[in-house]
Amino acid sequence: MRIITDAKAFTGAASVAALGMFDGVHIGHQALIRRAVALAGELGAQSVVCTFDRHPLSVIAPARAPKPLMSLEENLARFEALGADWALVTPFTPAYGATAPEDFLRALVRELRARAIVAGENYTFGDRGRGDAALLRAMAGALGYRAEIVPPVMDGDVMCSSTRIRALLAAGETEHAARLLALQQNPATASPQS
After folding, report:
1. What number is the average pLDDT over the span 37-44?
2. What CATH architecture applies to the domain 2-181?
């Protein structure tokens, strides 16, 4: 897996971009990355997992920034284990955070030559988190990419998320949290929604 810090450094002919903070690559993140890797194979493209060098809140509102579940190095090792061809680790700055979500998507498609973009239902991006799954779908036709929104992976009747894992850890439920963070070897394939 190649690691880059600027999308302009991507040299592939085409990509499938997986979007997320990926703060600890839990079972929900794993389903999303696996879908992007599989879709890249179907489209003859390369998979690019797009994340940040730090949690955006550590820049925007440091007092509210959550403690990382895993280090960046651990997350990158997981991306590679899940089959990603590339990892785009963008340095998060206030200026980058102020990017309009439409401009973020235009740049992503242009620089990564994205033929598809894969994200979770609750993923937000761009200035004040105004970009979401609906915008990803809405701009797909005009920008020429396929939008794939991966449904949440459930932990019983609760969505698996980094927030859920932090709550489990705070409650002392370390074994439960560890199960949600475990790298799944033979997962059930999440069914995509376009």
Report:
1. 98
2. 3-Layer(aba) Sandwich (3.40)
